[in-house]
TrEMBL record:
It is found in: Mitochondrion. CDD domains: Complex1_LYR_LYRM2. Residues 19-77 form the Complex 1 LYR protein domain. It comes from Henosepilachna vigintioctopunctata. Belongs to the complex I LYR family. GO terms for cellular component: mitochondrion. This is LYR motif-containing protein 2. Involved in efficient integration of the N-module into mitochondrial respiratory chain complex I. Its main location: mitochondrion. Pfam families: Complex1_LYR. Keywords: Mitochondrion, Transit peptide.
């Protein structure tokens, strides 16, 4: 008897949400690199990692979308703050 260790198949909707989350994660870390001061950068990176890990097991599409919109708002605020500080 052969036991398969295949990953579960995800729907197109879930795949797209997963890509949105990954892109948001990357964008947040790119923006954090522009923050002056290594200490502040590290603090923001740890906060972002902790927040993403805390919500990694969410499976409800609506909940995930809510987290994505929260993350996008944070990213926009961070980018605006960086622009103003120049």
């Amino acid at each position: 008897m052969v036991i398969s260790k295949m990953k579960p198949v995800v729907s197109l909707k879930q795949f797209i949400l997963k890509q949105e989350v990954k892109n948001l994660y990357r964008d947040i870390f790119r923006a954090i690199k522009k923050v002056p001061g290594k200490g502040q950068q590290e603090e923001l990176k740890e906060w972002a990692r902790r927040d993403f890990r805390a919500n990694a097991n969410d499976t409800d599409d609506l909940t995930i979308r809510m987290h994505i919109s929260y993350g996008k708002r944070f990213l926009k605020e961070l980018q605006n703050s960086l622009e103003l500080s120049r």
